[in-house]
Design brief:
The chain has a four-stranded mixed beta sheet with strand order 8-7-6-9. Strands 1-10 form a two-stranded antiparallel ribbon. Strands 2-3 form a two-stranded antiparallel sheet. The protein has about 280 residues and is α+β, with helices and mostly antiparallel strands. It contains three helices and ten strands, in the order βαββααβββββββ. The chain is about 10% helix and about 15% strand. The chain has a single domain (about 1-75, about 80-279), classed as paralog of FGE (formylglycine-generating enzyme) (Alpha-Beta Complex).
């Protein structure tokens, strides 16, 4: 796993052995997450007021339930400043990802606005768990040793293989097969293992703690039990890229790509899928 061809945090290339596991065919959908909430009464991080002890210096009036949402810029912006296209939306959550006055989430799209503990809670309820980074990358590669999950060409024979940004980020999105945000799971070709949306659509949580590079020569744990309360100072590894990934900004729609995200983050481009140990 890993790569030395793109971003430094993907290095070094190294061999990892994983046990036998099964992984879900597609990301958990809004409908599936809704079944979990209905059965348990679970309240997501985005639906809870923020703890002032975790966010010192923030006005208590701003510590209301809500989440980060993507807002297209009006034109070209400095791509080093993500605040140009991300905004805090009070009341945004998995039911209405862009806010209470916006459309409800589509039932067949990946659930979004789920923080790391939310994803872990769903997995435990389902009798499963979240994947480690190594498990996720093995599944995404589908037995193919190539740059992308489908080969070395990003659009083989002109075919769009994943839901990624089409146009000029972050202000002009021509849509991936017509979708300018998340798409229904399974809308794009599966990989060689028959898995859908491993690349693009939404980033996916893993149980691996993020470091600035892979640490194959250490015995650092690959995963750990999710905390009862998320730690905004701890980053988990996200995998797979999303519908917001573009060549000029986020060339991370590849199995080896990885990105850090704090455990308490809920956004419009992060989801998850679960794994089960076999045997």
């Amino acid at each position: 796993m890993g790569s030395t061809a793109f971003y430094p945090e993907e290095a070094p290339v190294h061999t990892v052995t994983v046990g036998v596991f099964a992984i879900e065919q597609h990301p958990v959908t809004t409908a599936q997450f809704g079944e979990f909430v209905e059965a348990t009464g679970y309240v997501t991080i985005a639906e809870r007021p923020m703890d002032p002890e975790l966010y010192p210096g923030v006005d208590e009036a701003d510590l209301v339930p809500g989440a980060l949402v993507f807002r297209p810029a009006e034109g070209p912006v400095d791509l080093r400043d993500w605040r140009q296209w991300w905004d805090w939306a009070p009341g945004a959550n998995w039911r209405r990802p862009f806010g209470p006055d916006r459309d409800p989430a589509a039932p067949d799209h990946p659930v979004v606005q789920v923080a790391y503990p939310d994803a872990a809670a769903y997995a435990a309820w389902a009798g499963r768990r979240l994947p480690t980074e190594a498990e996720w990358e093995y599944a995404a590669r589908g037995g193919v040793d190539a740059t992308y999950a489908w080969g070395d060409e990003v659009t083989p024979a002109g075919a769009l293989m994943a839901n990624t940004w089409q146009g000029r980020f972050p202000y002009r999105n021509d849509g991936a097969l017509g979708w300018r945000g998340t798409s229904p799971v399974g809308s794009f070709p599966p990989n060689a293992f028959g898995l859908s949306d491993m690349i693009g659509n939404v980033w996916e949580w893993t149980t691996t703690r993020f470091a600035g590079h892979h640490r194959p020569d250490t015995d650092a744990p690959a995963c750990c039990p999710p905390p009862a309360d998320p730690d905004p100072m701890v980053n988990q590894v996200l995998k797979g890229g999303s519908h917001l990934c573009a060549p000029e900004y986020c060339h991370r729609y590849r199995p080896a790509a990885r990105s850090p995200q704090s455990q308490d983050s809920s956004t419009t481009h992060i989801g998850f899928r679960c794994v089960a140990v076999v045997g």
